[in-house]
Amino acid sequence: MTAIYQAVVVFGVLGLLALALRYFVGNDKRAVPDLDGSDFGLLSEVAIVPTEEAANVLVRKLKANGVRATRSRHAPYRVMVFPADVANARLVLKT
């Protein structure tokens, strides 16, 4: 009788543990990873150029004017900044 009782207790504890883990860990609602490289998260695109050299020139120009900027890794190269810096970046790039 005690062996059956122990087995029931063990399976009961495992069931409760499984439910707790499912509740606290199993609700992963994160987006699917960006496999094609077109999602840049928080960054906003301010320019598209055909060469890496041109993108680097624009990034250096933005950084020299106090705008945090980066570029994408693949052609066509996208120059990107944070949303708060978009207006300043466009103003800098017009000059």
Automatic annotation (TrEMBL):
Bilayer-crossing regions: 6-25
| Keywords noted in UniProt | Membrane, Transmembrane, Transmembrane helix
Name of this protein: SPOR domain-containing protein
